[in-house]
Amino acid sequence: MATPSSPCSSYGGTMFNRNDYAIQWNREHPDEHRKHCRDWARRHPVENRKRSSEWQKGNPDKARCRLQAWRDANRDKKREQDRRRLTKKRGANGSHTLDDFKVLCQLFRGRCVKCLKVKPLTRDHIVPISKGGTDNIDNIQPMCQSCNSSKSDNTADYRLIAQRLRIR
Ligand SMILES: [Zn+2]
Questions:
Q1: How far apart are CA 90 and CA 83, in angstroms?
Q2: Are 76 and 84 in contact (CB under 8 A)?
Q3: Is the pLDDT of residue 148 over 60?
Q4: Which residues in the chain belong to E strands, given as ranges?
Q5: How far is the CA of 58 from the centre of ligand 1 (A)?
Q6: Which DSSP state fits 143?
Q7: Which one of 41, 114, 128, 146 has the minimum C-beta count within 10 Å?
Q8: Looking at the predicted structure, is the pLDDT value of residue 111 above 90?
Q9: What was the pLDDT predicted at 20?
């Protein structure tokens, strides 16, 4: 990961020298410091890569930790990318974002539209993609894994039933 080994090493001495004041400033302004680092890395891609690979060699344990932390933070994003790619591949038109789906789940108070239990929710395409359904949010209902599996290819819209039962 492109993170410098110490607070000010990425400024290359142009903005601050690597002195106590700079280190203190970085500590007090973590967001600005991060932004400066990112800007610097963008302007110096070759040197940045070199520095960060040197840093990784010198700090293998820390590097592994940071990579893992980055992966954890981006797991949702990665899973979402994979899902979208797969849906496209299956021939679906339209798309929606993870946020769209989260909002939809909140609308149903985190409940499965079929069994109405609060469970981890998956997306169910009301009109299956295999039958020409889109991946747009208006063709999605939140369903738990077991209801989703047992639903197979029927096109029942459980959202109305769930709403009638005042799961809103
Ligand atoms: Zn269910």
A1: 11
A2: no
A3: yes
A4: 121-125, 140-144
A5: 50
A6: E
A7: 146
A8: yes
A9: 80
Ligand 1 geometric centre to CA of 95 (Å):
23
Distance 115 CA to ligand 1 centre (A): 4
Ligand 1 center to 84 CA (angstroms):
23
Residue 18's pLDDT is what?
Answer: 58
What sign has the CA pseudo-torsion 17, 23, 24, 30? positive
Domain 93-164 falls under CATH 1.10.3210: no
Model confidence at 14, in pLDDT bands (50, 70, 90)?
very low
Surrounding residues of ion ligand 1, Cβ less than 5 A? 112, 114-115, 144, 147
| d(C-alpha 85, C-alpha 81), whole Å | 6
The verdict on pTM exceeding 0.85 is no
Kindly give the distance from the C-alpha atom of residue 32 to the centroid of ligand 1, in angstroms, as a whole number: 46
3 Cα to the center of ligand 1, angstroms: 44
Question: In this structure, how many other beta carbons lie within 10 angstroms of the beta carbon of residue 29?
Answer: 12
CATH 1.10.30 residue window(s) in the chain? 93-164
Tell me how far the alpha carbon of residue 116 lies from the centroid of ligand 1, in angstroms.
6
CA of 120 to the centre of ligand 1 (A): 9
Span from the CA of 146 to the centroid of ligand 1 (angstroms): 6
Query: Residues 45-91: pLDDT tens digits?
Result: 999 899 989 998 999 999 999 888 888 888 888 888 899 999 999 88
